[in-house]
Amino acid sequence: MVEGDKAKLRTLLAHWIEHNKEHGQEFKEWAQKANALGETKAGEDMLAAAAEMDRANEALSRALRSLGVG
Q1: In whole angstroms, what is the distance from residue 42 CA to residue 23 CA?
Q2: 46-55, long-range: CB within 8 Å, 24+ apart, which pairs?
Q3: What angle do CA 4, 9, 11 make, to 5 degrees?
Q4: What pLDDT score was predicted for residue 53?
Q5: How far apart, in whole angstroms, are the C-alpha atoms of residue 42 and residue 26?
Q6: CB < 8 Å & 24+ apart, contacts of 47-51
Q7: Helix 3-36 vs helix 40-66: angle between axes, to the nearest 10 degrees?
Q8: Is the pTM of this model over 0.90?
Q9: Calpha distance 67→3 (Å, rounded)
Q10: For a designed S-S bond to 35, which of 13, 43, 45, 70 qualifies (C-beta 3.0 to 4.6 A apart)?
Q11: Which positions of the chain have pLDDT values less than 70?
Q12: What are the extents of the domains in the chain?
């Protein structure tokens, strides 16, 4: 891999991780709102999506570490 590409990949991975964290937090907040509206199934599914986002971030973090970051 060309060093410039490797640097870009590190930057992208870090960006995606942060972006996913923001979305995951939003999912959790809106899941609470859905639950308050009595839409518990939607709330559960949104919490499941947040958990999947956390798992994706774990994989992205491993990828970032394998590139020598973190």
Answers
A1: 16
A2: 50/24, 50/25, 53/20, 53/21, 53/23, 53/24, 53/27, 54/24
A3: 95
A4: 97
A5: 14
A6: 50/24, 50/25
A7: 160
A8: no
A9: 11
A10: 43
A11: 1, 70
A12: 25-70
